[in-house]
Amino acid sequence: MNVKQVLDAKGLACPMPIVRTKKAVDALQSGEILEVHLTDKGAIKDIPAWAQTGGHEVLQHVEEDGVLKFWIKKA
């Protein structure tokens, strides 16, 4: 996967992971991919819901050692 930017949002509580993710996605060009690292368990539902409302695509998400990782393709 050709990731354009990695956002470290570990340790942040809602709503900050979404705020930071939105700001990072806004800075990307259409079709570019953002990798986001989070520890807020609410992100499992929040990130896909936010992405859908903006027309963005969550390509993949995994959990590794308590860190949630999302790959989001900008619309």
UniProtKB/TrEMBL annotation:
Annotated InterPro entries: TusA-like (IPR001455), TusA-like_sf (IPR036868)
Top-level taxon in the UniProt lineage: Bacteria
Location of the UPF0033 domain: 7-31
Any matching Pfam family: TusA
Family from the record: Belongs to the sulfur carrier protein TusA family.
Protein name: Sulfurtransferase TusA family protein
Species assigned in the record: Bacillus yunxiaonensis
